[in-house]
Structure formats: C-alpha cells, structure tokens
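User: I want to check something. If I give you two sequences, will you return the structure for each one separately, not as a complex?

Assistant: Yes, each is folded on its own. Here is the first sequence with its structure:
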Amino acid sequence: MKKVLLSIVALLGLSGYALAGSPTAPSANPVVIVGTSPVSGTVTVTQGTGTNLHAVVDSGTITAVTSITNPVAVTGTFYQATQPVSAASLPLPTGAATEATLSTLNGKVTACNTGAVVLTPTTTQNHAHVSIPTTAGGTLLIAANTSRKSLLIQNIGSFAMFCGNTGVTTSGATGGEKIDIGANFLDDTAVFNGAVYCIGSGGTTTAAYREVQ
C-alpha cells in the first residue's frame, strides 16, 4: 500500500511532501502541481522574501517609452534659459580689429562728423535769352571767353537765324551757322572762344544760349 501511494505521489509531482502516516520529513525542493490534486498530511508554505524570490531576465527586447499618458513631475536643479557670457573671455579671430588698430585707422580717415562736406564745382554755367533782330552785321549773342568749354545755342523764336563771328549775314557768306526754328547748335569740340553774333532771317527771333566754363 505504501509503495502504491509513493508512486501516486511521484506521478503527481508531490515528492516534496510527506504522506499521511509516513515518517518522511517535508522536502525543500519546489513542488509543481498541474490540475487539481488532493493533498493529505501537513503542508508547509514558506513566505516569499527578497532572499528567496529572484527575477532573472536572460533574453528579450526592452521597448523605449515614447509617450506618457499621465503627467510626470520633473524636479531638480535646472539652468536658466539664457547663460551669461563674458565678451572679454572670447578669443578674437585672426586679423580682427583691436582698439590699437582702430585708433591708427582713424588717423588716416577724414572725420565726417564735423559738419557738411562742401563740394566746389570745377565748372560754371552762364545762360540767357537774347532777342535777335535782322540788323545788318548781326547782334552780339555772347562775348568772347577764353575759359569757355562748350556753348549751346537754341532758336526759340519764330524765324530762322544765322550765328557766327562778327559781320554775320543771313546768307551765311561770312561763315554763319543757320539755326532753324526749334533747332540748336552745340559747340563742344574745337570750341570757338570768340564773340558770337546772330541775325534773324525774315524777322526778329529769340536765341537761348548756355555756356560752360
């Protein structure tokens, strides 16, 4: 009878427990029970502690946390958003200007904060409107000027006219230049520095001139 019971115990995996009436002491080995099995006698249960409970991870994958549903408090010491930096401690790049080089440069540049810079023109202009009648020999339009650089003559009257040196006639026989109504004559190449006379052709007209010297 005892051998039969021992076989049943071994079959059920209850080898860690003593059968009723058996002098065998309880075993310290773990017992695995599958399904429902009747147990007789005394069963000792050991309370789990940090010493006899162990969790071992020998394989698997750890998944990173990508989101947190509930708020999580973050505490501790943090740096302020803007960190103070001393410019005196920053290194200057190669060739950078310093106070010494700037003072030297200032001595080579004309100061512009002392007032307006006055520009003196190198040329001047003379201009006028002159009535040109049909008087023989012509009417003086502009006097001689050895500093003359260019001369522009325009006919703004109602009759054609001839302009040239002294004694100019309407026929142009003395070298006069004909200037029709609304036309102009520009002398800016081999500039004539002498006096210029003009005479109206068919009636009194008006001449406008601009002289640059």
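And separately, the second sequence with its own structure:
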Amino acid sequence: MQQKLANDTGALDGALPNGTLPQPGYPTRLGHTVILPDRLMARDPLDLLYGSLDLLILQTLAWEPMHGYGISNFIRQRTAGVLEIVDAALYKCLHRLERQDFIEGEWGVTEENRRAKFYTLTSAGRAALRAETSAWTQYVAAVHKVMEPA
C-alpha cells in the first residue's frame, strides 16, 4: 500500500502549520534526536547495542570473570569506543542475567583495592551464549543477504 503524500487540500501530510516539513530524524533511546541531513539514514550505535547487550556481556565473561566496570571497559576498548554502555543499562542487564542463572556474582576486591562484585559465566550461561551467538550469526547473515546486490 502506498503512503498518501498529500491531503485533500493538496498540502503534504505531516507538514507543520507553516507549511514546512519537519526535520527528518528520529529519537534515540536516550532521548536525543538524530538529524538526517539530505535524507541520509543514520543509526545511533546505542540503539543497536541494547538489543544485543546480553550477548556482549556473556561473550565478555567467557574470556574471564569481571566486575561491572571491567565489563563496560572491555566492550568499550574492543569496539574502539563505538559502544559505550550506560551504567544503569549494564547493571540492569547483569541483574537479569544473574536471576536467569546465566552468570554468578561474587564479592571481591579490585586491583585498586576496592570492593566489587565479580561475575562469572555459568554452564547455563555458556549454553545461552552458544544459542545467542547462533541466533546473532543467522540474523547478521540474513541482513547481509538483503544488503548485497541481487
């Protein structure tokens, strides 16, 4: 079905009262508006991050046990700063993964002699990581098929 571009008066649908069209763009999860110059489509990496945060955390913990800041720092360093996890989202995800028995937390002391909760991947977490990795790989392959020339 085609989208109607003009209303009955001939004005463009979505036009502001002064007759101009709103700036193209979209709101991000963090409440920012990304303006799309010349109708180019851009994406805030954080929008994509939150859909894959469980996978990123599980994979990070597959390397070694870490505390929350260590997990966040590891992901930021491995992605050259493209992915930065907001603390609230990180800890919400860690608590959810802990409730699902995918990770276990144990209090310990950091290298800076600070008390922190260190998270370890459980056997159920390893199984979840394998399943999530498989699903992610299938998803990426499907998107790639759409993106490549016919």
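Because they were folded independently, the notes below concern the second chain alone. The mean pLDDT is 77. Strands lie at 25-27, 33-35, 66-67, 103-109, 115-121.
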